[in-house]
TrEMBL record:
Mitochondrion among keywords: no
Superkingdom of this protein's organism: Bacteria
Identification of the protein by name: CRP-like cAMP-binding protein
GO BP of this protein: regulation of DNA-templated transcription
Length: 221
């Protein structure tokens, strides 16, 4: 299996971009465990994440949660807002603060200034293209792969060879509960628990002190 795009968008560090946004945008802080955007809300600003992590999710009619992606420092929210001369959009997902957040808001006037700067244009394009590529991969996965394969791919994307102690078993770069994994791959907690046990019997993974480790033979370099 190949390591491609992952639900966790790792921090994107660009000091020039950060200083530019901080100079022109205005700062707000959001406490952890807060839903600060909900479906149906009117959005009139682009948001730059200066620090912290945000989760973007939707809920089905039965209450089941599906996490679209998790963003961290250096990424944008609603970065396509002002495309085609639009002045606002309507939120389609819940956005929550996984940690304390520091955000910078960019309105239409500030956007007109910043879009003339190459570093800002490149960052907007990067944010849009990475989200599109990841969501396309997610759509293909949900359409073509069974839940077990989605779970295996999810673990492979999270595997962390650098932290391996023996080069045989790879730990994961992030820890998730079974419920959180279920929300990410679009199933339920019971199914995740059952499949982890099944994959352990197949020697695809092992669980040490409640932490999943993957057998390196199943992961491409």
């Amino acid at each position: 299996m190949e390591r491609e795009y992952c639900v966790n968008f790792e921090p994107y560090i660009n000091d020039e971009l950060s200083e530019l946004v901080k100079t022109y945008g205005y700062r707000i802080e959001v406490p952890a465990n807060t839903y600060y955007i909900k479906p149906g809300e009117k959005l009139t600003e682009i948001t730059y994440i200066a620090s912290g992590s945000t989760s973007h999710s939707m809920f089905g009619l039965t209450g089941q949660e599906k996490i679209s992606y998790i963003l961290s420092a250096g990424w944008f929210l609603t970065e396509s807002l002002f495309a085609n001369e639009k002045m606002f959009s309507i939120a389609e997902r819940y956005t929550s603060a996984l940690t304390d957040l520091v955000l910078y808001k960019i309105d239409a006037n500030v956007y007109d200034i910043l879009i003339e700067k190459k570093v800002f244009r490149d960052a907007i394009i990067r944010s849009l293209s990475n989200k599109r590529a990841f969501l396309q991969r997610e759509l293909e996965s949900v359409t073509l792969e069974c839940v077990k394969e989605r779970l295996k791919n999810f673990f492979v994307l999270l595997s962390d060879p650098v932290s391996s102690k023996d080069r045989t078993w790879y730990p994961l770069s992030h820890y998730y509960t079974h419920q959180e994994i279920a929300s990410i791959i679009g199933t339920n907690r019971v199914t995740v628990s059952r499949l982890i046990s099944e994959l352990a019997r197949e020697d695809f993974l092992r669980v040490i002190n409640k932490r999943v480790e993957l057998n390196s033979i199943h992961i491409a370099d």
